[in-house]
Protein 1
Amino acid sequence: MCRNLSKYALLFLLLSLSGVIFLLCNIHNIESWNCHTVSALYQLQTRLHSSLLTLNLPSYNHNLTFCAHLGQKPSPEDELEEHYLLDSIQWPGPPSHIAPPALRQTSNPLQSSFTILPKKERKEWRVGDQLEALVQIHDFQGRPKRYGGDFLLARLHSPELGAGVAGTVVDHRNGIYSALFPLLWAGPARIEITLVHPSEAVVVLKQLREHQPRRVFFKSLFRLGFLSETTICNMCLPSDQHPLCNYTDLYTGEPWYCYKPKMLSCDTRINHAKGGYLKNLLTNKEALLFQSGVNIKVRIPASGKDRISVLPPEDNVEGKGSSVKTDTVQLAPSGYYFKDLWRPLGGATMRHFNDSAAIRQCLRNKVVNMYGDSTVRQWFEYLIASAPEIKEINLNSPKNVGPFMAVDTTHNILLNYRCHGPPIRFSTVLSSELRYVSNELDGLSGGPNTVVVLSIWAHFSTFPVEVYIRRLRHIRRAVLKLQGRAPGTLVVIRSANLQAMDEEVSLYNSDWFSLQLDAVLKAMFRGLDVLMVDAWEMTLAHHLPHALHPAQPIVQNMIDMVLSYVCPEEKRSQT
Ligand SMILES: *[C@@H]1O[C@H](CO)[C@@H](O)[C@H](O)[C@H]1NC(C)=O
Ligand SMILES: *[C@@H]1O[C@H](CO)[C@@H](O)[C@H](O)[C@H]1NC(C)=O
Ligand SMILES: *[C@@H]1O[C@H](CO)[C@@H](O)[C@H](O)[C@H]1NC(C)=O
């Protein structure tokens, strides 16, 4: 008993140490986009963890609806990390003794409201201050809610200035929420609070995620000579009904199965495609929690004023707002818009690559390998549209699927795009093109002229989070190996973004699923030498509507950020 306790104590000490290291690393990261030393520390410390791990951690979710038992067994430190990650994204909900409530007892955005808290010491708001609004959620009967778990988004913006920043929402678990914003620009600032889902709907989403991982299904065509058959595929299939073909990846152990065709052998699989979406996932009562215009992404009104006016900081009346310090750790947005241009917070200087010449100049002698879903394919498309001299080669690839390649022989530029491995909901991918990102990275020589861009999130929303953690673990390991053997390889990670949602989209692709994946993604790559393009905040802070494929001005800001990282401004003062 005592021995166990002291082990736990040690572990917690280490975990809290890791918190400090992550924090240090973040600060460091913001300053220079380089975190070699700290990430080495982090790795050392992971090793320390594993040597201590003799205790048996309880495992989560473990009816194995997602074939966790079929992949490679995670190492003890991987298990510990997974445990920690799953803990960090626990979502509060209605108290478990409460029976599923009727619609009238659930959160109603239109009867809820928010109030701006008055400034404490001074009368006026200044740049550098923190703004807080209290949100009180009410049900359809107008009664205040008594528990938390509602999914809210908060944004502070100014249409006049083309400014916007993501707010932080704190759930007080009693129906009241704080929305916190750093004040980063002088001038008008308006608060916008949106109820994305009532807490009762989040409960339903959570259940779908754990118990209906096959609500998006896949299929493969098998063919030999004149014979062809199509069967259903997924990460995990019940094996008691039909014999299976096992396509588990030999290198990573990532599981993938199809039902075996009746006449053909498993070797005759020729492609992979999205099969479809399972319907009738909800009871009639549950369906009431997912109504467009009623309780999906509806604005919460202000009970008084929804805007304030911000003065320049007292000590800097010119108000260029050079670098704003926020003293609360919670309030660390990754950037904000001003005049519709994204300004990452911290020392990084954004450059603007507004024409083809600037883009080509930056990418001269570079190979840019983009891997992932359609949200990074969008970057490939943006680049060849903005710099048409980088010419796409016709590889006869299927539309929207790829692989795609574009070349500029005068500037010696090569752009590649390839989709990530299953689960991928693209129309039809040849089996021969179905590759896991980590294996692709293992095949790269890398080096200072190589840029690797990763965007892996949208196709994982229907699976339990463990599936995503496992995938990212493999990718992270491959990234570290790549940077180890080829120092100077630039790695960019594009995070998840908000999207347009209706009743249907919510059940498969809700922003709530994405939010959870996004938190895991950011935590797993924190402190490593990668550029994180925070697509979540860049879509939340922007005035354009949420879309799976964000509008051009947002993509342009993302590309500017990447190119600023690839081609940083020369520091004249140092030479
Ligand atoms: C897994 O699920 C089955 C049936 O749904 C149940 O009988 C079994 O007890 C569960 N096992 C665990 C470990 O939860
Ligand atoms: C599928 O193959 C992998 C790797 O060879 C193996 O570990 C796994 O147990 C197999 N799955 C089944 C259901 O036999
Ligand atoms: C791009 O920016 C440069 C310098 O800021 C400017 O001279 C040029 O006209 C701009 N080009 C376009 C197409 O806006």
Protein 2
Amino acid sequence: MAIQLFVPNFRIDECLAEIRECLEKGWTGLGFKTNQFEEAWKAYTGLQHAHFLSSNTVGLHLAIELFKTKFGWADGDEVITTPLTFVSSNHAILYSRLTPVFADVDDSLCLDPDSVAARITDKTRAIIFVGIGGNIGRYHEVLALCKERGIKMILDAAHMAGTRIEGRHAGYDADVSVFSFQAVKNLPTADSGMICFQDADDDVRVRKMSWLGINKDTYARTASQGAYKWMYDVEEVGFKYHGNSIMAAIGLVQLKYLDGDNAYRRQLATWYEEQFAGQSKIRLVKIAKNCESSRHLFQIRVKNRDELMLALNEHEVYPGVHYRDNTEYRMYASGKGQCPNAHLASSEILSLPMHMRVTRADTERITSLVRQYAAE
Ligand SMILES: *Cc1c(COP(=O)(O)O)cnc(C)c1O
């Protein structure tokens, strides 16, 4: 039987019941379930603020745009970022006409604080840290650099739903963290995301920015009833980036299962680790000691990645690669050659199947194939 990298697990009847409520009420848009989901997310994570969006990608754009306008950053100012990420993280910088500056990664595949320090200039305004696979890496050292220099920390927490660091949910100490609830993330909806600011004013403002700059949400206007529903003001040229109640309805259900699902992902990781123990051809990407990872990914490194990938595909096992070095893309060629660790990792990494339908027997089959085909 074929084993895919990701297969989302939806609690179908419960999701349909939540969606049914939206349909019966005649409320599928902003407000209603989106408010409920924001409250549930805050209660779950302990984060102070949360605003539900149509994706993580738009959240990263909003984060940068909000800070740029708030602090008067100029076009061309710099944001330090990683080449090992989904392009969303880096597109967000370009959307706001800022300059991505690529720093290298360490063995965790997250940003290396030494490389980050070497890239800081008097034009550095923010750092985008990606907690790859749910791992926190050496984030706290990068955060310390930000604090010393008044640089904003933007945590791309797309992989981090359910990641805890010393018992606290990821994001509690970032200026802003942005989560993804895209179809194959740990908390899958279809497409949506959450933006969580540290500062209460930023949370107020992002609610306007995500709804075209309008200063009241539709639901609040409807609830207030009567005349004057249309009497909102438009305070700035915002975007249409907010989430909707159908996605939030699915999110509310999926959130209940997130910890249980992540515990199973950690179990899968433990099985993979045990089965790879004592061999030299396969390097495992280590999780930081203080981090209880969401285990969005289980990544290994091998010398003959492309060959191994094809061999596994022959056996109907379909792993993934997270990610191709972004400086290989034409849009980010400016960073080419600056991040040798990321570049090498990009040719060696492989993400093994991680989802609720992978069994212990599957992990045994996968690891024995990997051991068979990995080169010395
Ligand atoms: C999935 C992902 C995103 C984008 O999330 P969307 O919700 O699909 O916009 C951004 N960054 C990383 C690291 C991701 O994996």
